[in-house]
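Entry for glycine complex. Fields follow.
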Amino acid sequence: MRTKQTIDFSTASCDYYFNASARRLDELVPRDRTVLVTDEHIFAHHQALFGDWNTIVLKPGEEHKNQDTVNAIISQLLEFEADRSWWIVGIGGGVITDLTGYVAGIYMRGLKFGFIPTSILAMVDASIGGKNGIDVGVYKNMVGLIRQPAFLLYDVDLLDSLPETEWVNGMAEVVKHACIKDAPMFKLLEENTLKGLKRDKALLARLIKRNALLKSKVVQADEFEKGERKLLNFGHTLGHAIENLYELPHGHAVSIGMTVACHLSEGFTGFSQTQRVVDVLDKYGLPTYAVFDAQKAWDILKMDKKRTASAMNYILLDRVGRAEVRSIPLEELQSLLFEFVTP
Ligand code: GLY
């Protein structure tokens, strides 16, 4: 049964509709003043959803999360004669939610928007938190804003068409949440398998809701990333650096980033559960140890938004379920990274 939960952020509230049906979108927004934004894959798999709604269909893939696509969306909004009373609803994975949220924030200085996430990654992470932006070359999410959606609609049946690789991809953020905040969930992940989660839709829906609320509460406590919210970047500093460099799926890059962060944690916090984390990542089909060009990764990493003048705020684990932000001097971080890649 559909349940509604409202989370109040500093400048807006977001209604979360769990166990909902995407087909009932017209209960939330007016059909004649709404534009749906999706990609060709989602459009092809779920055509009935789009019916006679105004729809913008984009090419799929992170490589299109850029200014050219933003310009193309804006041109189509103008063709629909969308004004400030209109809604934009992103239906898709993280690329769609990022593009939709970003355009909704800048078109006519801001329209109301909502998301129907269609991937695990978007359901537990990308659609939540209000950070929406685009890439500039190899620099991930270099341009963007923080602005909360008005609603999120969760329909786990949409996952039926999700390719295996995307299930795996999304599990990286679930493992991340467990590592930084939720030791009991880490245990649940150890005791289950991806196959088991796919079979048991009720368990899957509960897991997605648990992750969505975990992230939402972290964001609620620190919307503009002054402290607590930084923890959500566990695995992402190196992850983002290698993601576009090697065109890796986001979850794979983050999984490699988490593995490296676990090893760095050993030296800084005395973390002693790296093998447990690596085993869970392995279990869900994610890569852990990878060979990459440390110099190229460093050149991108040092431009990370979490950098201060001479140090990087790196997210480390104290133990499974508890993380901390450590300011690591850039020189030290660089040599540790090079050591890790070339032991
Ligand atoms: N939209 C993703 C985030 O705010 O973290």
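NOTE: The longest helix spans residues 201-221.
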